[in-house]
Amino acid sequence: MVEIEQLKGHHKEGFGKFINEPSKEQLNLYFYLNDSDKEVIAKMKKSSTKLGFAVQLGTVRFLGCFTSDFETLPIVVIQHLAAQLNIDYKEFYGYTRKQTIWQHMKLIQDYYNYVLFTDNAVEKYLSDWLLDRSWYTTETDNMLFDMLLKKCLDEKIILPGFSTFERFVSKIIDSSEKQLYKLLSEIPATSEVERLLELFDFVGEPIRGATLKMDILRSPLIDESQKELIRGFNRLIMFQSFHTENWDFSVIPEGKLKKLASYAFKAKAQAIQRMPLNRQIAHLVAFVYEHQKKAMDEQLLALSKYVDAIFRRAKNKEIKDRMRTIKDLDRAALTLSKIVELLFDESITNQEIRKVISDKFQKEEMDAAIFQVKDIVRNEQEPIAINELRKAFRKIKKFIPSILLSINFEDNNYGADSLVVWEKIKEVFPKPITLDHFYDIEPCLSKKWQYYIHENPTSVNQCVLIAGLELLFQGLKKHDIFVTNSEKYADPMSYLLDDSTWIEQREVLITQLDLPSSGTLAVQKLSEDLSLSFIETQSNWDASNMARLEEINGEVKVVVSNLKKGNEQPNEKEFKSRVRQLMPSIDLSDLLLEVNQRVGLTQSFKHLNEKESRMKQLDISILAVLLAESCNIGFSPVSKNNIDSLKYDRLTYVAHQYLRIDTLTAANQKIIHSHKKLELALAWGNGEMASADGIRYITPQRSLYSASNPKYFGKGRGITFYNFVSDHYIGFHGMVVSGTLRDSLYLLEGLLNQTSGLQPTQIMTDTAGYSDLIFGLFGLLGFQFSPRIANKHGTKLWRIEKNADYGLLNDVTKSRINTDLIEEHWEDILRVAGSLKSGKVNATELTRALQRSGQPTSLGKAITEYGKVYKTKHQLRYLSDEIYARQILEQLNKGESRHALCRSIFYGRNGKLYQTYIDGMEEQLTSLSVVTNAVIYWNTLYLEKVLEQMKVEGYDCSEELIGKLSPLLFEHINFVGKYSFQYNQGLEDGSLRPLKTPDSL
Questions:
Q1: In 10 A of CB 761, how many CB atoms?
Q2: pLDDT of amino acid 1
Q3: Do 968 and 936 form a contact (C-beta atoms < 8 A)?
Q4: What is the DSSP letter of 795?
């Protein structure tokens, strides 16, 4: 049963009551009297009656119920309504007659079509609605409470008392949970239930600290070492012993499964064991089903990195050998070239040639040269050091039985050869592959392997097994091969909207996306749009300094100019200097406390089991954990054994039970929501632009999710935190990327999955963050993709119409877009766009599947052609519109400056990330994002106060100068030192601390 106290603590204080004065926006929204309202009021005689009725009307609109306690009414409400009626607000205090008050309540209910919550039909309607929301969504109990409350306000349903409303919500949620637990507990067979409950049993000998069977399944892989691979296969086989492929989840919402699985993964086993039996089973079923897929993904990632390392070492060894013998090759080649010259010497007859050669070169010398060249120069069909791979065969062979036993592969048309080879291995193994087997699959192998096996027939078994693994993992990378019971390696095309759903939702989705319904109309619209872009560019070309036409290697090309630094405003340095002088100095801990006082940051952090905590000063503990995580200093510097809320053990407990991606995201949303209300934030942008870029972190400890890149990590390994920044400077989403994988792969996924409430329509990235396919997908979804262009050697423009006259740009637009391909695949293109819009398919994996590592599918080629239109439109505007180009640069600079602030906060351990598992990485770096946003919000708040002071002092505070300010300054913030967590009582009423005075400068 949902605990009443849980809802009560969150909502009772503000239910049907005025807690604070309504804001100006709320006054204008809920307490505005339109002409119809005034007509009703005009029929009343007394001023007190008129104003009383207006107050009752505004109150029910704002609170959702009538109030009987007029003494708690904020005076601004009465004054706001009185002003609209031209009545003295003091007349309201004559509104005391109970019968009149009751009649007004009845009149409002009847005239404005309000209905009572307790009406049977209304209760049934709300019950069905809330049950549906509770079943199909993953909102918390408090969020469901808030959603029902909003629905009542929106649909003019007069709220009952708090207890009635509270019991109603609790009853529905409880009913939904009981149904979920019942259905899930009935999925496994009786024998499987017994085995599920055995997961709570102790193991004989702990495995990596795991003492329970369930803990073995919950322990992620650390890296791609042989020891971890063996452990991973054992874990995978344990998961697969439950045969989840036979479990029917068709009636269970996916979000509910993931939520229960997440709890089962993080909660202590004892907490699950204390649940009623059906709840235990439900959590275990969800855990096994969901985390089997995660275990498969981890295992394939580790295995691919392990195999890649073997192939990479073999290739590097071959390169070194060739470099070492290059002098011998030169000598041998010189000898043979001289012999060839003699052969072509027309003065020497055919009868004399052998004697002339033998006189000049000894036979041993010629034999050595021939042998040297043959030994060193590999056949062009054999680029891989196969001999080196054969030496590593034992490292590869040991995992083949486990692969065959635990991983099922599927393919699309592109991966057929890989599966033919793999099926032959599966058929024959553990017996050796023979030449007859090889002949069966020879056409499926690449030429290098065919050549080598024919030359070395005794090595056929080793070669086919190695070649099979190579084909397999190449196929997985290209998304030609797919794996069942996987998320990352599943076929993303299978997640597109199915035929029946697509037929049902097609018109709605293409209307939402504003896309043409047919390929013919699509090509026509693209042609018109592109033509307009060329016309506009030609008209602006002479006035623009962004590009020039230049002949390079005999070909005319468009060369992009570097943007010059913008002009500095008069008195800009003095203006910014005074801003810095006035900003109050503050410790980071005090800053977090003040932000929490203003926005209720810590209210977003709920216990893992969603129960209200009885801990005192939990907010202090949460803020201390946030600071420790974001500064990368551990809990010791913030813990104090003489203060309960800051004891080390308590901080450890709070970090485990309260800091999760969902709670951190909710906290971030509070900051974002508060920040965008500030007037100064609007001076920096309207929220429609955003940028995406990665910040790199070295990971000293080996991790499956880190990778090497000498440019960023030196000799070590690291990860990238790919984050999104709005034009308000606020960060609104982030994700961990292994190593430095191409950022653009994750761009669309991050944008579609972010839940900040911000809805940017134009996205900027640096030059490395785009491809034609990405342009196409962005264009389909209605986003303006605007990467920076930095190409000094010429940028490519595309055209649709062969004979269109683009004037001076004719010579640089010779390449044509294949519109036939777009038209041919338009229906599939629409389905891809609709599936992305509805969240049915992962954008990153879909992009990979369409790109196939540079060999795109036919559908991928069609979307790429579509993207060339949007890419050319973007380039044309960039080349001829300096304001547009400068907007992109300025937004990217915001992201880079925000990275500098992040690094200053994340100062501990030399800024290196010591997390091993991806969950820990994401949680710590998201904590850093929350604290960074808190700094930005606090700075913006005080910059507003600074500007007020500077206006008093006579400074020019023009829009241009204000637009040059940034909330990323941090010289006045102390990130290092002793941390104190005591609220400033003087700020509880919303006051701000004083600015710096001359005495404090």
A1: 11
A2: 35
A3: yes
A4: B
The residue type of 1000 is S
Q: What is the pLDDT of residue 375?
A: 66
Give pLDDT tens digits for 954-984: 999 999 899 999 999 999 999 998 899 999 9
Most confident by average pLDDT, 20-34, 603-617, 886-900: 886-900
Cα–Cα distance, 976 to 633 (Å, whole number) = 10
At 936, phi and psi to the nearest 5?
A: -65, -45
Contacts (Cβ under 8 Å, ≥6 apart) of 197: 280, 281, 284
- pLDDT per position as a tens digit, 659-668: 999 999 999 9
DSSP single-letter state for residue 189: -
First to last CA, the chain: 58
Q: Structure pTM?
A: 0.86
DSSP state of 115: E
Paired residues of 157 in beta bridges:
115
115-116 and 157-158 as β-strands: parallel, antiparallel, unpaired? Answer: parallel
Query: pLDDT for 224-244, tens place per residue?
Result: 999 999 999 999 999 999 999
Q: What is the pLDDT of residues 374-407, one digit of tens each?
A: 766 554 444 457 888 998 999 999 999 999 999 9
3-state secondary structure of 222: coil
In degrees rounded to 5, what are phi and psi of residue 399?
-100, -5
Give the integer Cα–Cα distance in Å for 258 and 844. Answer: 20
Q: How far is CA 292 from the centre of its chain?
A: 22
> Measured between alpha carbons, how far is 259 from 261 in angstroms, rounded to an integer?
5
Please give the sequence-ordered ranges of beta strands (E in DSSP) within 197-346, or none if there are none. Answer: 202-207, 210-212
CB atoms closer than 10 angstroms to residue 312: 10
pLDDT of residue 11: 57
Report DSSP state, residue 486.
-
| Neighbour count for residue 887 (Cβ, 10 Å) | 17
Mean pLDDT of 145-161: 92
In the structure encoding, which two tokens stand for residue 721, read together? 């935190």
Q: Look at residue 723 and tell me whether its pLDDT is greater than 50.
A: yes
- Torsions phi, psi for 548 (to 5 deg): -145, 155
Structure tokens of 745?
Answer: 């792969």
C-beta separation of 424 from 496 below 8 A = no
By percentage, how much of the chain surpasses pLDDT 90? Answer: 68
d(CA 52, CA 218): 62
Q: What is the pLDDT of residue 3?
A: 37
Residue 706 near residue 687, CB atoms below 8 Å: no
Residue 677, amino acid: K
**CA–CA distance, 603 with 618 (Å, rounded to integer):** 10
* Angle, helix 772-780 to helix 826-837, in steps of 10 degrees: 70
Is residue 831 helix, strand or coil?
helix
CA–CA gap between residue 837 and residue 752 (Å, rounded): 8
- Identify the pLDDT of residue 141: 81
Q: String of b and e for 616-647 (b: at least 16 CB within 10 Å)?
A: eebbbbbbbbbbbbbbbbebeebbbeeeebbb
Host H or E run for residue 396: helix 393-397
Measured at the alpha carbon of residue 409, what is the angle toward residues 407 and 410, in degrees to the nearest 5? 155
When pLDDT is cut at 50, 70 and 90, the band that residue 86 belongs to is very high
> What are the tokens at 5?
């106290």
Which candidate, 899, 900, 904, places its Cα nearest to that of 974? 904
What CA–CA distance (Å, rounded) separates 530 from 801? 10
Q: How far apart are CA 100 and CA 826, in angstroms?
A: 66
User: Strand 689-698 to strand 717-726: parallel, antiparallel, or no bridges (unpaired)?
Assistant: antiparallel
On average, the pLDDT of the chain sits at: 89
Which residues, in sequence order, are CB contacts of 465 under 8 Å at separation 6+?
A: 393, 396, 397, 400, 425, 433
φ, ψ dihedrals at 586, nearest 5°: -160, 145
Lowest-confidence pick of 13-17, 308-312, 721-725: 13-17
The Cα 683–Cα 961 span in angstroms is 10
